[in-house]
């Protein structure tokens, strides 16, 4: 229709609010409420595995966290997790003046709400020793009471073994945290080595919140341990992670045969995981690579342009996942840098007559010093 | 790890910016730039059809729009359209003092950029008469010069028929706009009836920008015309549509056998479309219904709770699309209201022993006075 | 500089993240963290009063809330409050199996953090009776132990009077909540009338979260009680209030001589308050009016346009506050509707030769059925 | 009031949309429209100067831009500019096949809309030569026709002098752009030196879009030239600048005696400017310093804490502007890093008995290699 240049100046009503009024003089103004919704995080599965979004490390008021357990379940539901574990510290309970210390309670309180909202809640605790060795998460545990180590006398190993005796899955947390070496560097230590040899250690946190422990990635790869990513949340997830940026909480992507606790356990033991934090993913080459190819789709050539007898072909490359991939051309003649934002597409071009372009995915780590390299087929 | 209650107060670095510097004293600060990306709008296809996102009605400086044609292509690419038509007014060219009037130019200027970015650009124009009858869009047209009606002398019908002779696809725009009836109501008119009888009229705009012409929906349903939705954009799309809200531009969803201009034309002629604006969709019951069932997925019962011998089952209902569905329970015992936000899930519960719940989708219109009714199976 | 039409397609780097790496293989990825900052809510004072942003009604795990008290202080700091009171239920402590019941603790735990962050923390509790009368907040209280009414035996009035004896400031909460009348209407009740006559009642909640109890506004105006607005938050403020929308939590604006607890108390007793929720404000005409004129600024005429011997003058009208005003012209010839978004400006025009335009501010209530009317001077 | 842990799951209505319907079957869905509003950019003045937000460098379809001039005025209004100049290239008009070349038209077309919206529109053009010297902006010009240099034959200097003869204010654009030196470095050149000596050169762009030409800052400081910042926009401002991030367009802050074109001209000639892009500001120390102290406010000590006989005082530091300051402690004992986000506050602490803390503002440049240093008084 005809519009004048002043059209834009005619938008004179609020975009923000409206209201409904009942007959009793109560006006509801729900419009600036956050909607009650569970965000779907889109990450495809592959090879018959589902990709489950898991966070096995968070705290409540039952240790040094600041929220009631139901808040953790609510966060998991809203933020699209499939699986979660509350892992309050066994040996550190600063709220004990006000809160009765019982390391089974966080799980018991969250249990119903998780069940009713289709969240797989796994029982856990954090075994909390001085550094080194520091902290270990024990998940899939039984009654917490059975393995509480006497804080003063227990040997570090004894504290971990008590959980192991219950057939817990045990992983080492933030290995580079509060290290007591002079230069701040962190190293592989004897206790962890013993736990590894005794097949008690199942994984290591490579991402803890916004920290990336790069050496830990090599340790996982070299010893076939599960690569773990966690929030280690004490405060409120939505205050640390800027969801309005399209960000997500740090997590472990578990490639499971089914959406069940048993399948998660089996996948962890077989090390079928990739850790994810901000725009980075880290894991064993096999899994990082499969995750990339399951997420990214390349169109056949949709356009060709010939100039000075040289023909350039155009392709659309789509990232169907909520992951983020930044790619740099390693070989072939084509677009040099490609950024695949979550659920978005890019156009790339390549000189005619090539079978593929080879890119390094600089946001995907398969070792501390090595990124994933991928081939983009040109058809 | 141990954290004090003050942890959150330690986040003291900007989340917003960082910078890179080259050796020549030029510092780049790209970080507050919008990323160059094409958003994928997720709407599944069905029955072997792809759902193409189309906008067949927009303007440039070649009539009364305020942007160069390449901006329209750029918008289409960023905002996830598959198909677009620039439809500048034939008989209204207020910029003619500065811009040479040639109704083929907008298409010619946008052509290469569209081709290189995998946007299907369809040639069009808006035939612009007084109201009634008002405006008609002609798309899939040939040389504009061949059917430019003399503005002063041409009969309204003649102006439309000249485009029809070129085998254009013709639809009636914003039928309720600037009506000259006293009470502001808009009605079916003789010219349109003639065009219909002569099989010249292919569709009617039910959504124009943020307007919903409800009567036009009934006219389309009763006469098997394509239900159309358009932006009719003159200014900048991103200034009218608040994309940070997760909103999208108004558009026509076309269910096409292939992602080609020919398939789009065929689907339009067969009326395989649904119009989409803000949170509303409108169309023939068959297509609105298929679109809903293709988008929404219901889990088997994942949890059951028995209280006073009454068992309630829990189900997860997922909206895998970017559409928005607000549902109210019509029959069955279960959750009374469900809001399915784009790409999110909800939990619904239902009393055991029922085969389904029946909901009215209050945001999906199949007639001016009728919403889609859907069955949610309970397994 | 020269740019081609494809320029926009060159933005190929993430806007979101960057990273810093230390020497020990720990990479920090802070970039998607929320910044640690206290938002300034801009609302001017007037007549020598400061406008303090206050929320006197919220809960923690010490009654039926879901967060530790420090979270409430952190929220207040981030969200720009000056003054807060935690008001856990005296007679309702559903977490008592895990949390030791002590109604002084929430205050004690929050005290230091509030002091260190310049938040005025006022001690409070919610006296929780059946409906009617329902709930009363007592703030500026002494030792909670001294007035805990025996839950089973205490008369409603007795429970309130015990707090009154401590010289608490007492207000009636959400008067229309869970009313037991058949038609859901809520009315003035005897107990409240007694408390009023005995000068024990100081105010009534007109806004509770997203509810607007309109009748309560009239009761406050007619009895010179403080008009109160609160979140009554049990969950997390940032999950109920969509701050990314520029929304703010519901609150009471207190016009105080100084930024001290004493000044707040004095202002409450004199009823110098306006309640604020979503885009609405409500209060006595005197204070709502002064708040409007302190917030809004009108420029002298900056442009005049004469057409057919009729001259139209242009003015800029600025809203220097974070309040929101929607205005409809009541008398005078000029712009008919003006929406003053937070911290933004509009252009209005008026026929020459008028001294003012008179608008009704439809988002500002001075009675249940009356909006503020303002004069916009034309110079 | 009593709420169960499931309360949050009761929010089941859309926060996004609502609709109004008229009697004629036209439903309006305005709710996802962007509001029509002019954002106020808060930057205080000082010493009797107002801080005007100015962008003197942008393009339209009359050279190589992609929008009609009114879009530039609309952007300026929405984005809070006080002053703007459209500066289309004289010697580069790639749209000339479709657009009649007339370098006065962009100004003429934008003039009324600017006047009606209180935007000061200054006439300008970009004198476009090969590199070096590259491009110069001439603003406050007369009739463009009088100084159009013949593109093929005119000497670079002649082209500039013709504008100078009209008493234009002339500044050098993006001095480091497309330099033809082998190593990409950019240097002071003879022509510019001549223009400087002849008092024809008035300023240099230190910020051009997202580029920071650091050497140019030194040249401005050493030769008392105006430090300029511009968007040099060709596309759409809102597509390059991510306003939802709280970002703003690059601009020149002009410290003017009045909000008039004359005052702007006078301030430019006296070099009373600071350039602003993303989170950075750059300018002469005098003006950057005054801008900082006008924007930032420090409270008296509001809290003191004594531990082991050492007392720490707490202060609130407020940034009342939309500028961004990142500060690192240089001397004194107190908070080591402070990030002052736009319109927000921080708490800082300092050991008792000091008169001040001294910080380096790492986001404020007074030379290419020097940041502003500020004293924060402790009272």
The total domain count of chain A is 2
Distance separating the two termini of chain A: 44 Å
User: What is the assigned CATH homologous superfamily of the largest domain in chain A?
Assistant: Metal-dependent hydrolases
| Overall SS class of chain A | alpha+beta
Largest beta-sheet details of chain A:
15 strands, mixed
| Count of individual beta strands of chain A | 22
What is the CATH topology assignment of the largest domain in chain A? TIM Barrel
> In percent terms, what proportion of residues of chain A is strand?
25-35%
Radius of gyration of chain A: 25 Å
* Number of alpha- plus pi-helical segments of chain A: 8
SSE pattern of chain A, N- to C-terminal? EEEEHEHEEHEHEEHEHEHEEHEEEEEEEE
- Mean pLDDT of chain A comes to 89
The CATH class of the largest domain in chain A is Alpha Beta
Overview of the structural elements:
Four copies of one chain form a homotetramer. Chain A has 379 residues and is an alpha+beta fold. Chain A has two domains: 50-283, TIM Barrel, CATH 3.20.20.140; 297-377, no CATH class. Helices cover 20% and strands 32% of the residues of chain A. Chain A contains eight helices and 22 strands. The first copy, chain A, has a 15-stranded mixed sheet that branches. In chain A, strands 15, 16, 17 and 20 form a four-stranded antiparallel sheet that branches. Chain A is globular and about 80 Å long. Chains in contact: A-B, A-C, A-D, B-C, B-D, C-D. Chains A, B, C, D: This is Histidinol-phosphatase.
């Amino acid at each position: 229709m005809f519009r004048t240049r002043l059209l834009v100046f005619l938008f004179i009503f609020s975009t923000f609010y409206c209201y409904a009024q009942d007959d009793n003089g109560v006006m509801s103004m729900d419009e600036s409420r956050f909607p009650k919704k569970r965000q779907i995080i889109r990450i495809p599965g592959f090879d018959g595995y589902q990709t489950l979004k898991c966070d096995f490390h968070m705290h409540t008021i039952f240790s040094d966290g600041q929220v009631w357990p139901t808040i953790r379940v609510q966060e998991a539901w809203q933020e699209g997790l499939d699986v979660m574990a509350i892992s309050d510290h066994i040996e550190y309970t600063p709220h004990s003046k006000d809160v009765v210390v019982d390391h089974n309670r966080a799980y018991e309180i969250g249990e119903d709400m998780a069940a009713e909202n289709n969240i797989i809640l796994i029982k856990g605790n954090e075994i909390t020793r001085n550094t080194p060795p520091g902290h270990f998460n024990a998940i899939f545990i039984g009654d917490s009471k059975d393995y509480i180590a006497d804080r003063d006398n227990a040997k570090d190993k004894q504290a971990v073994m008590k959980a192991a005796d219950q057939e817990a899955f045990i992983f080492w947390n933030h290995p580079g945290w509060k290290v007591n070496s002079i230069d701040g560097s962190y190293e592989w230590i004897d206790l962890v080595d013993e736990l590894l040899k005794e097949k008690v250690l199942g994984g290591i946190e490579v991402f803890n919140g916004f920290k990336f422990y790069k050496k830990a990635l090599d340790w996982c790869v070299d010893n076939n341990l599960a690569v773990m990513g966690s929030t280690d949340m004490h405060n409120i997830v939505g205050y640390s992670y800027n969801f309005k940026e399209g960000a997500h909480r740090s997590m472990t992507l578990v490639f499971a045969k089914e959406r069940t606790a048993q399948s998660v356990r089996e996948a962890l033991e077989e090390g079928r995981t990739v850790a994810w934090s901000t725009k980075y993913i880290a894991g064993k080459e096999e899994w990082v690579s499969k995750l990339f190819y399951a997420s990214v789709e390349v169109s056949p050539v949709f356009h060709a342009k010939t100039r000075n007898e040289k023909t350039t072909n155009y392709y659309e490359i789509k990232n169907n996942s909520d992951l983020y991939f930044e790619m740099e051309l390693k070989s072939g003649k084509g677009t040099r840098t490609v950024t695949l934002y979550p659920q978005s597409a890019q156009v790339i071009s390549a000189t005619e007559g090539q079978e593929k372009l080879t890119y390094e995915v600089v946001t995907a780590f398969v070792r501390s010093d090595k990124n994933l390299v991928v081939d983009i087929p040109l058809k």
